[in-house]
C-alpha cells in the first residue's frame, strides 16, 4: 500500500511528513561535470549499499509519464525526474523511503509518511542514512557538516517538511502573515509541489529553510512546535462559523460531494477545489462517506500522470482526461459501498 | 392525486394543457361595481349549479400563503387570489377542473391536465360549462358571443394554452423568432406564470390571443398544430449535439443531479435552473433516477408557498426556506428508492 493510502495522525490537518537528507560522495564531481560513466558508478555503489530491500528504477528506462507519476506521488522530486543522463530511484515501500541518485546531489534520501510523523520519518531515514554512511565515502567536513552541491543544504543536509491542509487559515486570508511569522523561525511555507509552486486544494508545505548551524534535533523540534501551533489555530478557525455561515459552509461541502459523485467531466483545477471542500467536510463530520486516507489517495490518483497510468487506455485529449478523472473520482464511493 | 403528479403525453416537451372559459351572469355588474352581497349571490348560484362533486373554498377564509399555493399549483390565477371581497374557488380534482367566481369575470372555469391533452381538457371543461349554462343566466350575445369583462375575452371566451419545456430552443436563442411566428398565427408565448412573467426552468406557455371571430375548434386546432411543430423542432435541436458538446451537456446534467441530491440550501431561482437540466436529463435518458411526473411534482412543490404549506414548521427566513427546499428536493430520490 502506498504511503498516502494509510491513515495518519492529525489527518484532519496533516497530509504528510517528510524527511530528506542530501549526501555526496568524495571524489566524484557535481552536477554537469559528472560524466555518465561516473554517474553509473554512483548508482551501482548506492544499489550495493542499500541492498535487496530496495527496488531500483533506472529513470532513463521509464516513460516521461511514469516519471511524472512518481513526482505526483511525492516519491521523487520534479528536478530529479528532469535530470539528463543516468539517474536512478531506489524505493523501499515498506518504510516509505526513496533514494534518488545523481540529481543535484549525488544522493538524496527521503522518507515520507502519512499524517504527523516527523519522528518516525526521521528514524527511518536515519537508519537508511547509516547504511549508506557505513558503505560509501560520504563527503563530510568537521566544520561545515555534510557537503552538498547547493550551500543552502550544507550542514545537516536535512530538509524536514510537513504538508498541511489549511482551508480555514487560507479562507481567512492568514497565510501571508503565517509565512512572515514562519520566516522569522527559519521556516518556510510553499504550495503543494515545493518551491515556487502555487497552493492547490488548501495544501501547504512547511519546511526548514536553514540546514547549517542547528542540530537535526533542533530543526525537527522547531518545525514540530510550529506545526502544533498551526494545527491548533486551523482547528479553532474551523470551529468558529455558526448560524448562517455554518449553514452556507455545510451547503458548499455537500455540493462538492454532489459534484464529485455525479460530474462526468472534471478538470484537475476544479478537482483541487472539490478536494478542499470534501476534506473539510470529512474533518467537520459533514461527510461520512469518505475517510481522510481515501481522499488523500483520491487526490494523488486524480493527478494527470497517475490518472493516465492507471487508465485502461491513455486519455488522448484534455476532455478525455477530464472524463477519466470524473469516472475515477466516482469510484471512491462505489468502492467504499461494496 | 394532483394533475401534475400524473404522467402526461409528450411529457419530454409538454408540461401541461389548459382550457379556460370566461363566463358572466346577466343582471350582475362587473368588477368593482359588484357589491359583496351580489358577489355572494353569484358564488351561491355557482355552487348550486356545480353540485356536490365540487369542493368549495371561500378565498377570504384561507391564509395568503394557502392562496399563493393554489396559484403555484395553477389551480387559480394570481389575479383571482388577489381579489378583494367575496370570491370562491370550486374544484373537481377528479377532472382537474377549477371554477373561479368573482374574479375579473363572474365565472372563470378551467381544466388543466398533464402533458399534451387539449382535447380532453376541452371536453371536461365543456361538460362543466354545459352544466353552468343549463342552470345560470349566462350572458350571451348572438353577434358577440359570450360577453366578458375584458373585450379580449369576448366571443368564445376560450383561452387554450399549453405549457412547454423548451430548453434547446431557448439555449439556441430561438424563442424570440418563435414568438414572432406565433403572433402571426394569433398565438402568444409567455413565461411560467402567464402574461408578462419571465421564463423559469425552460418553461413557456403558448396560448391563443384571439377569442373572437374563430370557432372553439379552430382555436384548438391552430394551437395544437403550432405545438406539434414546436415539439418536433425542440426534439431535433436536443438530438443535435455530438462529440464534445454532448459530453459537456451530459456533464452539466449529471452535475445538476449531484447538486439536487446533495445541496443543503437551494434558492428557488437556482432550483428552476436545476429543474431544466434535470428534465432535459430525463428526456435524454441521461438521468434514470427520476420520471417526468416526479420532476413536475418536484417543481410545483418546491415553489415558496407550496413548500411552506407542506413543511412541518413554516420557514421563517429565506435561508430556512432554502434549507427546507433542499431537504424536500432530496426526498424525490429517497422516495423513489424505497
Please explain how this structure is put together.
The structure is a homodimer. By secondary structure, chain A is α+β, with helices and mostly antiparallel strands. Helix content of chain A is about 45%, strand content about 15%. The first copy, chain A, has helices at about 35-50, 65-70, 80, 120-135, 165-170, 175-185, 215-240, 245-260, 270-285, 290-300, 305-310, 320-335; strands at about 15-25, 55-60, 90, 95-100, 105-115, 140, 145, 160-165, 185-190, 205-210. The longest helix of chain A has 24 residues, at about 215-240. Chain A is globular, with a radius of gyration of 21 Å. At the A-B interface, helix 8 and helix 12 of A face helix 8 and helix 12 of B.
In short:
Two copies of one chain form a homodimer. By secondary structure, the first copy, chain A, is of the alpha+beta class.
Structural topology:
The structure is a homodimer of 338-residue chains.
Chain A lengths: L13 E10 L12 H15 L4 E4 L5 H9 L5 H4 L6 E5 L4 E5 L5 E8 L3 H18 L4 E2 L3 E2 L11 E8 L1 H5 L3 H10 L2 E4 L12 E6 L7 H24 L3 H20 L5 H17 L7 H10 L2 H7 L7 H20 L1
Antiparallel strand pairs in A: 1-5, 1-8, 2-3, 3-4, 4-5, 6-7, 8-10, 9-10
Helix pairs in contact in A: 1-4, 2-11, 8-9
- What is the strand tally of chain A? 10
Radius of gyration of chain A using CA atoms only: 21 Å
Structural class of chain A: alpha+beta
Largest interface, with counts of residues having CB < 8 Å to the other chain, equals: A-B, 19 and 19 residues
Segments of chain A where pLDDT lies below 50 for 5+ residues? none
Q: Mean pLDDT across all residues of chain A, rounded? A: 91
**Helicity range of chain A:** 40-55%
Measured distance between first and last alpha carbons of chain A:
20 Å
Oligomer: homodimer
List the total number of helices of chain A: 12
Q: Specify the overall morphology of chain A.
A: globular
N-to-C series of helices and strands of chain A: EHEHHEEEHEEEHHEEHHHHHH
Strand percentage of chain A: 15-25%
Reported for the largest beta sheet of chain A, the result is: 8 strands, antiparallel
Strand order of the largest sheet of chain A: 2-3-4-5-1-8-10-9
